[in-house]
Amino acid sequence: MSELTPVAEIEELTVEVGGRRIVDEVSLRVLPGRVTALVGASGSGKTTTGRALLGEFPSDARVTGSVRVDEALVGYVPQHPAAVLNPARRVGALLYDIARGQVRELPRRARRAAAREHVLNALEMAQLHDGSRLLRRFPHQLSGGQQQRVVLAQALLLGARVVVADEPTTGQDALTKRRVVDELAAVAARGIGVVLLSHDLETVRALADEVLVMRDGRVVESGPTERVWLAPSHPWTRELLAEQPTLTGDAPATSDSYTVLRVRGLRARHRDVEVLHTPELALRSGECLAVLGRSGSGKTTLARCMAGLHRTYVGEVLLDGVALPRSLRDRARGQLAAVQYVFQDARASFDERRPVLDQVARTAVRLRGVPPRDARAEAAEVLNNLGLAGELAARSAARLSGGELQRAALARALLARPRVLVCDEITSGLDTVTRRGILDLLAGLLRNRDGLSLVLITHDLDTARLASRIAVLDAGQVVEQGSAEDILTAPAHPFTVSLTEKHSLQGRSLGKH
Amino acid sequence: MRRREKWLPSGRFALGAALVCVPLVLALFGPLFAGEPGPRATSFTLGGGHWLGTDFVGRDVWWQVLFGGRPVVVVALAATTLAYLVALPVGLISALTHRTWLEEVLMRPLDVLLAVPSLLMILLVASVFSPGAAGLALLVALVNIPDAARIVRAAAADVASRPAVEALRMQGESWWRIAVGHVGRSILRPLAADAGVRLTGVLYLVATAAFLGIGVAPDAADWAVMVDRNRTGLFVQPWAVVVPALLIVTLTMGCNLLFDALLSAGRDVTPERVVVRRGVDVRDRTKEPRP
Amino acid sequence: GSSDNDSGSDAGSANDGKPRRGGRLRAAFAGGGASETLDPHLANLFADVARAKALFDKLADYGDDLSAQPRLASGWEPNAGLDRWNVTLRKADFHDGKPVTAEDVLFSYRRIADPEKAFRAKASLEPIDLKASRAVDERTVEFVLKRPTAEFPNVLAAFGAYIVPDATSDADFDKKPVGSGPFRFVSFAPGRSAVFRRNEAYWDGAPHLDELEFVVANEESARVNALLGGQVEYAHELNPTTARAHEGKGQIEIVRLRNSAMQAFAMKTDRPPFDDKRVREAFFLIADRQELIDGALSGAGVVGNDLFGKGYEYYADGLPQREQDLDRARSLLKKAGAEKLKVTLDTSAVAAGFTEAAGIFRDQAAKAGVTVEVKMGSKDSYWADILDSGTLCCYRSGAMPIESHISQRLLTDSTTNATKWHHKDFDALYHQAQSTKDEKDRAAVFDRMQRRLYAEGGFLVWGFADWIIGTARTVKGVERTAPANSLDWARFDKVWLA
Amino acid sequence: MSGLGSWAARRLLLGGAQTVAVVVLVFALTEALPGDAAVALAGDQPDPARIAAIREALDLDRPAYERLADWATGLLHADFGHSLTSGRPVSSYISDAFGPTLLLAGLTVALLVPVGVGLGVLAARYEGRFVDRLISSVTLGVYAVPEFAFGVLLVTVFALRLDWLPPTAVGYGTDLLGHPAALVLPVLVLLSRPVCSLSRLVRAGMIDALASPYVAHARRYGIPGARVRYAHALPNAMAPAAQQLARTVDWLLCGVIVVEALFVIPGLGTVLMNAVAERDVPVVQGLAVVFGVITVVLNLGADLVAHRFAPRAEVAA
Ligand SMILES: Nc1ncnc2c1ncn2[C@@H]1O[C@H](COP(=O)(O)OP(=O)(O)OP(=O)(O)O)[C@@H](O)[C@H]1O
Ligand SMILES: Nc1ncnc2c1ncn2[C@@H]1O[C@H](COP(=O)(O)OP(=O)(O)OP(=O)(O)O)[C@@H](O)[C@H]1O
Ligand SMILES: [Mg+2]
Ligand SMILES: [Mg+2]
Ligand code: NI
């Protein structure tokens, strides 16, 4: 190891915002061909540290310490990829711009073809197999996972010696995730230093050579992955790595439960392309339905149809047997409150400028007629339960971490006291500890608040275990649905089989000492 | 952090404020100092007790300058505000609606207004009605509405389709809060830029209208009217044009600079700034917020 | 009138040296846009008249004092009753080589008087009974009139009464107009330019210039700039302020044609408050004429004395100059029971100085306790609007003989009687003048009529504006004393480039 | 792109209706103006008998709707009618004046876009700094000076004092291309105000766009600064500016009266002015058709640009 010179280095970095140290004396070395992982609770400063390698800090932060990067460019896959995709440019243009830098040496005439070659190659590496089709699309015409992979493709195209990947596998299904991990491993194998910021321990374990465990901005433990895994020294690490207790959707679909939400003959289109066909899907009261499926299979589209955010469909969405208006603009307050949706891209769903608390509280004011003062108190309480204490909640959305925003978005929906809560990948950006907390909370609500039903959209099988029933989507079709038990233990459809296959990620054999 | 949010780029702010102050003070308090108008002299002459000379009908230019600010400020501001009072809702409605017919109903008739030469419009009103200052403000606003509405719509279209707006709808937020509180606020910068420039356009439209017989008298003490009517004497007695024109220039320039300064001060979501330029070793670099 | 045709050029230009032949002169006028035509009978604007004048001739034209001077007519002789006039033509040829004959004259006049059309000169030719009139021989026309008309030569000089060849069709005028004027047609683009060439065979001596181009520039500053920038050599109708800026600076020459445009306020004498002659007199006394001249005309003019035609033939210049007298005005108003009088003054941007004058007069009237409210009207229909409605309006008039002014505006059956001056005895005086053969006696009658108008007329004539022309310094021979509309104004056959 | 295609098709259809509305409105406005062609022709000789005669000769005594209907039927055969004042075909009025107008507008826009956008981008790039302040002050200052005064100033300095350029285009007629020097000053004056409004809108949009994460991302990846500004940030700043640009082109094509008068360029503005003054209704109507079509097309173009640069708008629920 000693023979390697680091391609990037952080020394005693401290980032202080408003008197609070969000990163506290963190040191980090990025070695070529090695994967360095930062793990830690949501809000522990992973993203802030990772961005320091790019030379970027929160505005008006007080920064001390040093950051050294060998080369000019650093690849970066941010936590919320949608934000870095230019809404007015096609995916192709966004990629070509970067590819152009790679083909500068070639004669002018050969450049175009070479750039295209590069782009398609990168898309393939980023697991976007029908890449050439996506090139003509605008970013908003991609699913969340596809956006993420486009951003990954950009980072791969760049050919930088350091890549900072912030939660590169959130929002990816197990299959895709496996491939992305392989790809990152291959990237490292080419001598590129990878900094992996992730809450996904499986991914970390499979990829990382070295792990830094963060808590409240401080590195509490660091060392080679295997050592940390096998012999965690800090109690916090132990907690973080603790085996997940298998939550099971114990909410019994009792005989007195009735169908709250029914989707019938739904065929949803984007423009003229049909992306979703769901002949029948029912959600019973008090039940938790998980929707599983690969990235781009139409999960979000389904959720948005339910929520009234996607209008171009035939068929109907029935609440208590009554068809809901297609657009949420035409829904009555009661209907709005009854069906709430938690956005996949939490950051984009908040107004960056206003305090999160205010934004969350409005739900209660508008949908339940709670006086503003009480609404704020209630919002503060819900946020607190979700781990966003007072001071955090009072900040503007721009000043919260990805996981924090995800929780705020959940709180915003919960404040409506919905009967159907549609959660789109709400735990994707959360560490195990926080995730456990949230899922517990949701399970508790299911149990105690009668009438609440959950639709959990997830790629995460562990999360899906919370559900009592699971529906599996593939390429817009519901290929299988049934009780969670059945689906997870004895999947019938080959696609489900491939999804639920014991997703042991191959640890890398190379470079481990 | 709090401190930082209140902090204004003081230099620019001060400059803008100073620029606005001169014409504003003159406009507001000028009439108090003006006193009685003296006797007339030959038009466009210098000297003879008139320290800025005389205007196109032989009146004292300085006296006119003192008196001529109020109508400019009042009518132009009123007309611009009025134009936006209509253009803003119309533009926002058509940007926020998903009903194409509603958008067409709102915007297409305005397009028709755009295609009618405004000269014809003003001529007609001039000859059919004889509106006073208020009518003038209305008319000038009317001429400006289609244009402003289109700009509002164009600026708002993108913001209106973002997930943040969907989330607001999901919360059952009222139209006004979504439109004004969120979308309107997000497009404040283009709006301010447009309004700042529009204000100037309105000033001279008022002057043109005056000459066609609408609103103020064609020989009114009004800076814009002065610039317009004294232009024939530009080479004999430049002050009659230059002084009011300069005042208008300072007024609009000041307004715009003030807008700019306020907007960049109000922006609390400053982009996270890039501090370390890469490829270099940046040891012990300390960055502190500027005072 | 006198007939010194050959002395036109050296009248006002003593030190211009010897005329030089050759060169092209470009003259900028305000024009009528794409609707312009070269049909001389349609001439309406100054640009039209200037072009018509270059291509065509009238039988007579106005001298500097607006008396009729023979042009194509070499002389005229009335009968004793003054209702039959024999006009003899001089020897002159049209551009196509054909001589100007009596038939051409009759054709032209009949064309103007065509009841189907509405040519401007039609009203002026009204005294002639064209059916009865005839060609006595090749070069003599006998005009039979409907009534005695001592001032008949004025009719021959009327605005737009040009002689065109017999049987010219309407379409010919824009394509290839043929006249007897000093210049021949070369090309014409409506609203832009017209190019003419010297007519070597002109009866009044061939012009000095080789070529003459009229260009249209409606904006005064454009004309000035073109002149200053050497793009034109002659710019018609400049502002007094421009004149002041450039007069005597050596860059360009400024020519002021005095007594060109009467400036007035017209009071409708048939309705309150101006049906009371004390109110009219009070208004005469309210006006501070010098202030109006200085303010509205930037000093470029002379004060008026409530009478039309200063400096023209028959003008009553023996009357004392009226001055502002607010006390007397106030007491007259009081006597008329018109204290705290409120009147609306119609004005419009239709002529230079109108809005300015209105504003100034409003302030002057305020000093006499009269509230004048200035009302801006549409400039395109202003003249028709003020003819019958309103009580007080801004008024102006170009140069014309005093006799024409009276017949057009001050008789009971006048077509444009803007002051509603209807007085049978006044009409009678006019007819008496027209039937008086002796010039002195006639002048006495005109003098009586003007005294009446001075005392109680409806026109508050406060001034006479200069007509300002700018020329390049090389332009010589420009007449300096001819009021606008008279023969020597905008006349290019006697002009040369040094 | 079928959605966009049908959208554009519908807009063009509506555009037809709009043009009709423009013509009717303009006709109504001209009719509502006091006086008619006869009164205008009569000028300062408003002899009532003469006016009546003119009216009869011009067919003006017929009811307004009949005249409009006649004119509209003519239009169906591509006949714009004949001028009341001169009797010449209206199409000749339009075709004669369109050349200079198109030339001026073309030149102005060709310069306006790069200059306006460039200045806006430059100002946004140095927001709050000297360059920004310089650009803002100069453009705003020029904007606040009326066109007329600015024109006179330019003529005085560059044509009369320095003698570099001709002060007017007098005498050049429609052959302006043959005298390119005569076009410099008019184009400068025409540019003076739009440059300001355009650059301010571009600047405003650019400041927001430059602060966005996607621009930061592009920078991060070493995309050249100019490319980041013009290809990445600018499209997001363009929607309001495109509207402004459409308005400017509209204004340029529908006649720029002051500049045409000041520099003696016989364009559409002059024709319109004269036609209105003369109450030459057929000419005014012919121009209304032209202006209506121009406006419809330009608005469509601007909306297409807005649509292209805010592609998310179409998916709004
Ligand atoms: N606006 C759009 N226009 C065209 N196609 C779209 C649009 N939005 C989504 N799609 C396509 O529709 C399909 C379904 O998208 P959806 O967002 O529902 O996927 P998803 O299952 O939520 O995926 P992920 O897990 O990646 O979020 C994807 O292939 C996506 O590319
Ligand atoms: N711009 C900012 N201004 C102030 N505080 C910030 C800002 N950005 C992040 N923070 C705070 O700093 C802490 C660390 O944020 P960071 O984004 O680094 O966390 P993280 O470890 O990436 O969390 P997550 O897993 O939720 O994404 C958080 O508590 C967050 O609220
Ligand atoms: Mg993070
Ligand atoms: Mg999704
Ligand atoms: Ni399509």
What does this protein structure show overall?
The complex is a heterotetramer of chains A (513), B (291), C (498) and D (317). Chain A is 37% helix and 25% strand. Chain A has a 6-stranded mixed beta sheet, with helices on both faces. A 6-stranded mixed beta sheet of chain A has the order 15-16-17-12-18-19, with helices on both faces. Chain A has helices at 46-52, 81-84, 91-102, 108-125, 131-134, 144-158, 174-189, 201-207, 225-230, 235-241, 299-307, 333-338, 356-368, 372-385, 390-393, 402-414, 432-448, 461-464, 484-489, 494-500; strands at 8-17, 20-30, 35-40, 62-69, 74-77, 162-166, 193-197, 210-215, 218-224, 259-270, 273-284, 288-293, 313-319, 322-323, 339-342, 420-424, 453-458, 469-474, 477-483. With 513 residues, chain A is of the alpha/beta class. Chain A has 20 helices and 19 strands. Chain B is an all-alpha fold and 291 residues long. Chain B has one domain (11-34, 41-285): MetI-like fold (Orthogonal Bundle), CATH 1.10.3720. Chain B has helices at 2-6, 10-34, 61-67, 69-96, 100-115, 118-128, 133-160, 163-170, 175-186, 188-211, 223-229, 239-266, and one strand at 281-282. In chain B, helix 4 (69-96) packs antiparallel against helix 5. By secondary structure, chain C is an alpha+beta fold. Helices cover 27% and strands 24% of the residues of chain C. Chain C is built from 14 helices and 21 strands. In chain C, the strands form 5 sheets. In chain C, strands 1, 10, 11, 12, 13, 14, 15, 16, 17, 18 and 19 form an 11-stranded mixed beta sheet that branches. Chain C has a 4-stranded antiparallel beta sheet with strand order 5-6-8-7, covered by helices on one side. In chain C, helix 8 (289-296) packs antiparallel against helix 10 (354-367). The model of chain C is unreliable at 1-14 (pLDDT under 50). Chain D is mostly helical and 317 residues long. Chain D has helices spanning 2-32, 37-42, 48-57, 64-76, 90-125, 130-144, 147-161, 181-210, 213-220, 225-253, 257-263, 268-278, 281-309. In chain D, helix 5 (90-125) packs across helix 8 (181-210), helix 9 crosses helix 10 and helix 12 crosses helix 13 (281-309). In chain D, 56% of the residues are buried. The model of chain D has no long low-confidence stretch (mean pLDDT 85). Chains in contact: A-B, A-D, B-C, B-D, C-D. At the B-D interface, helix 5, helix 6, helix 7, helix 8 and helix 10 of B face helix 1, helix 6, helix 7, helix 8 and helix 9 of D. Bound molecules: adenosine-5'-triphosphate (2 copies), magnesium ion (2 copies) and nickel (II) ion (NI).
The oligomeric state of the chains shown is heterotetramer
Mean of all residue-level pLDDT scores of chain C: 88
- With strands numbered from the N-terminus, the spatial order across the biggest sheet of chain A is 5-6-7-3-8-9
Give the number of DSSP strands of chain C. 21
Gross morphology of chain C: globular
Low-confidence stretches of chain A: 503-513
Radius of gyration of chain A: 23 Å
**Rg of chain C, please?**
23 Å
List bound small molecules: adenosine-5'-triphosphate, magnesium ion, nickel (II) ion
Number of helices of chain C: 14
Mean pLDDT of chain A, to the nearest integer, reads: 84
Largest sheet of chain C: 11 strands, mixed
